[in-house]
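call fold(seq) -> tokens
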Amino acid sequence: MKGYAMLKIGETGWIEKERPACGPNDAIVKPLALSPCTSDIHTVWEGALGDRHNMILGHEGCGEVVEVGSAVKDFKKGDRILVAAITPDWMSVEAQAGYPMHSGGMLAGWKFSNFKDGVFGEYFHVNDADGNLAHLPSNISVEEACMLSDMVPTGFHGVELANIKFGETVLVVGIGPVGLMAVAGANLRGASRIIVVGSRPGTIEVAKKYGATDAISYKDGPIDQQVLEMTGGKGVDKAIIAGGGVDTFEPVVKVLKPGGTIGNVNYLGSGTYIQIPRVEWGVGMGHKTITGGLMPGGRDRLEKLASLISVGKLDVSLLLTHRFKGFEKVEDALFLMKDKPADLIKPVVTL
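ret:
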């Protein structure tokens, strides 16, 4: 089969590989739509996961089942399916402990284009099919379905990590597609004031459609100073970090109220240490919590998030700014994600 792969750090290209084999609990899927992610960019051009050779990229997509293993009960050939970017081993000890995304080791539930070939192939393999696939609702398009692989579950996980409650003031740093879904999730959770940090007018407009009440730009000065000024020096109850780098934590800690929580879902592709300001962290005793997590995968989560789209409570079509047609356009979509033109939120490729 043909696939679009990371050849080595800084280099990608089309390769030929054998079609993956199907184990008794697994499924083989052909993609119906695919979407590149900023994580692919970190992986290839920053070497964030270390070197990978001839590994097919991609972890966002939906597809049609072409083969299932003998032990698979709920899926069959021809089913149109959702699949998350994270595909845990559900029989693992880590899954039993409540952390399926780390099954087999830290971040090891993230298999696509990390430990095994990703979804940018003519076929891709899904382990534990009954636990990692979900049926694609008929009223969700294949383009929208791609957003359920990573953008929606990751953005919403930031909301879960920050434990947002009714009436709270929330800061969302970074309003790419994950940050925008964090805004939508915070709004659904009942946040009152949602302050977003972004610099592109298009994404700010979309953020406001998802529930943002205020927007600031790092280009206008230190974000902590801007947030403190606009909140009368009080700061925010909760924060979600969905963009930036290792230096982003410092200003966020500065504006977080005592007892507040930061939920980080940003992939830190470079840097060695995170800077936490000693005094503003309450000299270690400010009850300011910093959490960071890889989003959960699994069928139950996919089905529940998909239901928000099915009933009209979440509109992910606002994320889809660039559409391509044909498998060969995966390369164009990936490089578009790398170059990030001002009007880009998310590209999608239909096959």
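The chain has eleven helices and 16 strands.
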